[in-house]
């Protein structure tokens, strides 16, 4: 996106306008009437209550966490108008936490104090969720000692674009959709509508702030790429239901594919408006087939998470033909072709417990194919799980080589080409 187009996408948003919307949209968490909601809660099926407890716990814990972590954002903001808006956002997040606490206490009957309600929610928080919010805690610590523009861009990307646009917004959408249609919990529905409007305003701020920082400095783009590489493995797994029980979503009228597809549409539009579309980022950040529908992309992600390739590690990743195909096609789209475009290269994988695959890099394009290539330039011999540990889980490949769990075969030139092709690329 050109600077002119980027300015057009965000130029009609001002920090003053965003602040005014906050003043005009103020609401009270204690004015919400939950008197009818208890009956609505009791009318839910057992699996619906389990699902609601799971997703509301994530919202409540998240609202409390961002309330605690916003102060260093205010300190680091380079513009006074940004500081004022972020101060209003901190009030919003506290109000959202109070709203969810009231719902837990008055409707679900769990927890008297905010602290006791938080403790009640902890068992509901999964691996992916904890990874994202642990990183948010760490980001607040980093901002206190590093108030540079690239660090602030990283922080806004994590909070406003990952936590709010990618995770919170899809959850809000489907919760609201169900209870507005059912009409059984009017107090909760009203509160969620208020929360959703606040979050839209917050995301608008994040998009505008990032668009300005991206215009000012490519270092900000690189900083954002780094935080996305770090946190996306966790964010992908946030909506995985306990025990992969998909009734947690289908009992509310939507599928996992629906929520993942909605999230992808949401975040794609936000990054585009910010002036740094996902397709302009290094290919490993968003290695999806753009010709596929969002639902097909979502299904592929879910297949890999169920297989233990993505998401929470299970130590026994499935090597089914479908999981292998999706992973190698994704790897092919992630190749840094600029570094190996001098001649065609063929990279081969041979697994002792799974079918072989190879990737061909030629003329700036790639293709992933099953089976053995006739004359590979470089070969990796290993187990399927070991390759997942190295390529997805970040295990040190040199250590795996030293332990003879990963055996490279080929010339030094082939090794260098392989390393260049599969090393994450920096922003030019």
Total tally of structural domains: 2
Strand order of the largest sheet: 3-2-1-4-5
Helix content: 55-70%
Shape: globular
Instruction: List low-pLDDT spans.
Output: 1-9
The radius of gyration is 23 Å
Can you characterise this structure?
The chain has 428 residues and is α+β, with helices and mostly antiparallel strands. It folds into two domains: 3-284, Orthogonal Bundle (Ribonucleotide Reductase, subunit A), CATH 1.10.620.20; 328-421, SCP2 sterol-binding domain (Nonspecific Lipid-transfer Protein, Chain A, 2-Layer Sandwich), CATH 3.30.1050.10. Helix content is 62%, strand content 7%. The protein contains 18 helices and five strands. Strands 3-2-1-4-5 form a five-stranded mixed beta sheet. It is globular and about 70 Å long.
Summarize the structure.
The chain is α+β, with helices and mostly antiparallel strands and 428 residues long.
Key traits:
Ribonucleotide Reductase, subunit A, disordered N terminus, five-stranded mixed beta sheet, 428 residues, Nonspecific Lipid-transfer Protein, Chain A, single chain, alpha+beta, 62% helix
Task: List the SSEs and their pairings.
Layout (H helix, E strand, L loop, with lengths): L2 H8 L4 H10 L12 H7 L2 H24 L1 H6 L3 H29 L5 H8 L5 H19 L3 H34 L3 H31 L1 H18 L11 H4 L5 H18 L20 H13 L14 H14 L10 E7 L5 E6 L2 E6 L7 E5 L1 H8 L5 H6 L3 E5 L1 H10 L7
Parallel strand pairs: 1-4
Antiparallel strand pairs: 1-2, 2-3, 4-5
Helix pairs in contact: 1-10, 2-6, 2-10, 4-6, 4-8, 6-10, 8-9, 8-11, 9-10, 9-11, 9-13, 10-11, 13-14
């Amino acid at each position: 996106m050109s600077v002119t187009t980027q300015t057009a996408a965000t130029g009609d948003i001002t920090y003053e306008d965003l602040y005014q919307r906050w003043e005009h949209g103020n609401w009270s968490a204690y004015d919400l009437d939950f008197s009818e909601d208890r009956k609505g809660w009791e009318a839910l099926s057992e699996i619906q209550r389990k699902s609601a407890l799971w997703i509301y716990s994530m919202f409540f814990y998240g609202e409390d966490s961002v309330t605690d972590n916003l102060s260093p954002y205010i300190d680091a903001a380079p513009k006074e108008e940004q500081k004022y808006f972020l101060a209003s956002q901190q009030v919003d997040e506290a109000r959202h936490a109070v709203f969810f606490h009231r719902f837990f206490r008055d409707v679900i009957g769990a927890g008297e104090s905010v602290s006791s309600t938080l403790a009640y929610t902890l068992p509901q928080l999964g691996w992916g969720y904890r990874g994202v919010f642990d990183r948010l805690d760490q980001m607040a610590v980093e901002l206190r000692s590093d108030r540079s523009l690239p660090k602030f861009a990283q922080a806004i990307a994590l909070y406003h674009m990952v936590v709010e646009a990618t995770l919170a917004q899809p959850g809000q959408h489907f919760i609201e959709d169900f209870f507005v249609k059912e009409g059984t919990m009017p107090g909760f529905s009203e509160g969620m509508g208020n929360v959703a409007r606040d979050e839209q305003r917050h995301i608008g701020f994040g998009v505008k702030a990032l668009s300005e920082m991206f215009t000012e400095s490519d270092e900000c783009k690189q900083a954002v790429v780094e935080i996305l590489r770090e946190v996306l493995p966790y964010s992908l797994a946030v909506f995985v239901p306990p025990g992969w029980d998909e009734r947690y979503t289908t009992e509310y009228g939507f599928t996992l594919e629906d929520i993942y597809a909605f999230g992808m549409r949401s975040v794609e539009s936000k990054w585009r408006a910010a002036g740094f579309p996902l397709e302009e980022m290094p290919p490993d950040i968003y290695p999806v087939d753009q010709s596929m529908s969002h639902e097909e992309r979502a299904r592929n992600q879910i297949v890999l998470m169920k297989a233990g390739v993505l998401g929470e590690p299970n130590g026994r990743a499935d090597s089914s033909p479908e999981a292998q195909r999706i992973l190698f096609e994704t790897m092919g789209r992630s190749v840094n072709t600029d570094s190996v475009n001098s001649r065609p290269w063929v990279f081969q994988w041979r697994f002792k417990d799974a079918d072989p695959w190879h990737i061909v890099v030629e003329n700036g394009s790639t293709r992933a194919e099953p089976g053995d290539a006739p004359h590979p330039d470089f070969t990796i011999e290993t187990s399927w799980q070991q390759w997942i540990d190295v390529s997805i889980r970040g295990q040190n490949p040199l250590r795996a080589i030293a332990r003879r769990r990963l055996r490279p075969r080929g010339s030094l030139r082939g090794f260098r080409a392989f390393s260049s092709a599969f090393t994450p690329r920096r922003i030019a």
